[in-house]
Amino acid sequence: MENYLNRISIFSRFLLVGILNTCIGLSIVFLSLHALNMSYWSSTLLGNSVGACFSYILNRNFTFGSNVKNSRAMVLFFFVVSASYLIAYQIGYHSLLIVAEKYSFITEDILIVIAAMLYTCLNYFGQKFIAFKRDN
Question: Which stretches are transmembrane (predicted)?
Answer without folding.
Answer: 12-33, 39-59, 71-91, 103-125
